[in-house]
Amino acid sequence: MLTNLQGLRALAAMLVVLYHALTADVFGPGRFGVDIFFVVSGFIMVYATKQEFSGIRFLAKRLIRVVPLYWSLTLLVFTVAVFAPHLLKATEVDFNQLIKSLLFIPFMKSNGMVHPTLFLGWTLNYEMFFYLLFSVFVVFPNRLHTVICVSTVIGFLVILGHVLDGSVVFEFYTNAIMLEFVAGMCLGLISDRLRLAPIPALALAVAGLAGAAMLDGLVTHENRGLLFSPFALLVVAAAVGVEKSGMRLKNPLLLLIGAASYSLYLVHPYVIGLVEKLGIPASWLVAIILSVCAAIVILYAIERPANRILRGIMGSRRLMSLQVDSGSRPAETADRRTNT
After folding, report:
1. Per-residue confidence (pLDDT) for residue 234, from 0 to 100
2. Which residue pairs from 141-145 have beta carbons closer than 8 angstroms and sit at least 24 positions apart in sequence?
């Protein structure tokens, strides 16, 4: 995996943390971090699966990566909502909403917002839909065919969403923000030929961040994917291109934050909320520091151990299936041993 993408994950996560710690009015462009995440996700699906042709195995790996921490934090937040609701802002004690949250099914809450029990889990609904769609077409030996098929489906859904009205689920999965996955996939196809010197790469990254900041006031829920995706693509292309030219991020703190970016992204709204309720001076700064610390603890205490255990189970089952397959052809196995 490209090292610079870990640093980019750190940047994206910190943008979102600042967006919530300083409030949207103060640091509105911080939400651009989500769009960077989506482009990175599309890129990784193409870049890291060039030798993967099993949709089931691909989906299992993504579930192992995403589900354990998401379910753990969702159940924890729901438990707090049951026994200490005063600690939370808008989390509702609704078992139907809990089930939909765990199954990545979008729904509208009583406040008119479409997000699951875990506040920022709405982005994971998009991620899981993208993974499911990608798993259908990952079977093609040529990854270009996979990208074409996935992009066609996403493009069709986005067009459909602009033409028709429908349910909450329909409106959610026809949003143009899914075009950011397409942008990332396209970048993944050309990444092996992408080489950028430091100054051009820096210029691309600055142009992407500055462009997103200037357009932030024009961005709405409906046009976000159309306006932000080109600028997110520039930032990701800069990180990939400069590493392909031999310049790799080495800062250990940024790499650590990048490794913990998933935990940081999910947990920081609750750390910020708790710090605000305690009335701590310079609460935004304290909240950011505590959020990073909490994310690192979660990375080592929950996220990595859970992933390691589940990958081990997945590997054991795969090994057993191979043994069963080889055991079903004893004569062939015996011939091989004799020949060796």
Report:
1. 97
2. 141/53, 143/46, 143/49, 143/50, 143/188, 143/189, 144/189
On average, the pLDDT of the chain sits at 90
- Cβ 91 vs Cβ 81: under 8 Å: yes
C-alpha distances out from residue 245 to 36, 183, 193, 302, Å: 21, 21, 10, 35
pLDDT tens-place string over residues 278-329: 888 778 899 999 999 999 999 999 999 999 999 888 876 665 555 555 554 4
Summarised one tens digit per residue, pLDDT across range 129-145 is 999 999 999 999 999 99
For the chain, give the secondary structure using H, E and C: CCHHHHHHHHHHHHHHHHHHHCCCCCCHHHHHHHHHHHHHHHHHHHHCCCCCCCHHHHHHHHHHHHHHHHHHHHHHHHHHHHHCHHHCCCCCCCHHHHHHHHCCCCCCCCCCCCCCCCHHHHHHHHHHHHHHHHHHHCCCCCHHHHHHHHHHHHHHHHHHHHHCCCCHHHHHCCCHHHHHHHHHHHHHHHHHHCCCCHHHHHHHHHHHHHHHHHHHHHCCCCCHHHHHHHHHHHHHHHHHHHHHCCCCCCCHHHHHHHHCHHHHHHHHHHHHHHHHHHCCCCHHHHHHHHHHHHHHHHHHHHHHHHHHHHHHHHHHHHHHHHHHHHHCCHHHHHHHHHHC
- The pLDDT of 46-62, averaged and rounded, is 92
Q: How many angstroms separate the Cα of 15 from the Cα of each of 108, 197, 226? A: 26, 25, 20
pLDDT of residue 316: 67
C-alpha angle with apex 234: 139 to 12, nearest 5 degrees?
Answer: 85
- pLDDT of residue 121 exceeding 60, the answer is yes
